Amino acid sequence: MTVATIITVVVGALVAIGVFVLVLLRDVASDIAKQEARVWLPLLSRRIVRRAVEDLPIQQRGILEDMEAQLEERSDRPLTMLLFAMRISRDRRLIAEEARALVLEPSSSASGGKTISLSGPVAGIAGLVRRGLTTTNSHLNLVRTLVNLVVVLLRSYKAMLRRNFERVRLLILIAIPAGIVLVQLVIVHVISVSAIWLWLQRGPNLIIAIYPLVGAILLTRRRQVQRLIRRMLFRRDTE
Amino acid sequence: MTAKRRITEQTERILQALMTNPTAEWSGAEIAPMTGIKSGTLYPALLRMERFGWLTWRWEEIDPSEEKRPRKRLYVLTGKGEEISRAVEHEARVRQRERARRKGFDPSPGGLTA
After folding, report:
1. d(CA A141, nearest CA chain B) in Å
2. Structural domain contains residue B56
3. Contact residues on chain A for B54, CB-CB shorter than 8 A
4. Cα–Cα distance between A66 and B59 in angstroms, integer?
5. Would B53 be classed as within a structural domain?
6. Does the predicted interface ipTM exceed a cut of 0.85?
7. Which domain covers residue B21, as residue numbers?
8. Do B84 and A112 touch (CB under 8 A)?
């Protein structure tokens, strides 16, 4: 056996072991992450909301109870809880400003003359084009108008994503697992083809023969092997 | 002299949602999905509307220890809020009709024109 063959076999074996261990441990790791998330994310979310409410005038801090009630409604979705808390935290200044104004001017009796202002990408683009046409026609203005145009388009794209959030989320939910499975299949395929190629090049060899064998076992008996690993890690039957 | 009050798109959406049943009491968790407004934006808008006297709220009558969750605020439109909502609805209809007329289509019954 030459040094090159030994290195090829050792590196191949390490890569194969690494990939299969990753495939196997993925579910175990996700289980652990899920358990942790169920405990830590709600705690973190409550903490964030409490911190956000600290900015409010004392008279308005009762709103915390309502915020916590809304957090509890999302308790089965820890990530959504965290998102809710982060949104509150992001707009804490705005909330505090309104709360302060309410304390200073409780339920004003000002009557309701009003102006309606609606914003939208079309209005934004129209305004930009109008300004671009009426201002001095220099390169700087043109660049500024183009940059603003891109910003407006990006904003409308963001609004579109928001409107179609459910569809995008569904797409992500399908695309990510499909992508993972595809990558796994490609990796297993590459390893198997390499093993067959090595077999043909170097003749029958026990170490080389192990690759597709281990691959086949793991692909067909993946659940059982994962259960075995879980038992070893947690010392209890998780089934 | 009437004070000019700016009604944002969010406020308009909240008013429209509350007007689906003006006498009902709504929690923030119910208003948010109806209007598509996120929590961070919803709270300032509700506080502003409360300041203007367009809505009022009361605490939900539950025992938090029994229900194992905190109480919610229940919002309800005031008389003034209803009045404003009607005006906003009217404005929206006028805008819609204006837009339709510009496109050559009259949305009123029997008003289909080329």
Report:
1. 30
2. yes
3. 112
4. 9
5. yes
6. no
7. 2-60+70-93
8. yes
pTM here? 0.51
Contacts (Cβ under 8 Å, ≥6 apart) of A87: B38, B39, B40, B41
pLDDT of residue A115: 37
Q: Are A62 and A77 in contact (CB under 8 A)?
A: no
User: d(Cα A80, Cα A101) in Å, to the nearest integer?
Assistant: 30
Structurally, chain B folds into a number of domains equal to 1
Q: Beta strand B73-77 with B26-27: parallel, antiparallel or unpaired?
A: antiparallel
Tokens of A151: 């910003």
State which residue of chain A sits closest to B81, comparing Cα positions.
Answer: A112
- Which chain B residue's Cα is nearest to A49? B40
Q: Evaluate whether residue B107 is within a structural domain.
A: no
For B95, the token pair is 């805008």
In a domain, B110, yes or no: no
The proportion of chain A whose per-residue pLDDT surpasses 90, expressed as a percent, equals 1
The CATH number of the domain where B41 resides is what?
1.10.10.10
**Contact check, Cβ <8 Å, B44/A102:** no
* Amino acid in position A136: T
Burial of A52 (0-12, 13-18, 19+ CB in 10 A): buried
Strand partners, B56: B76
- Residue entry with tokens 């009426």: A134
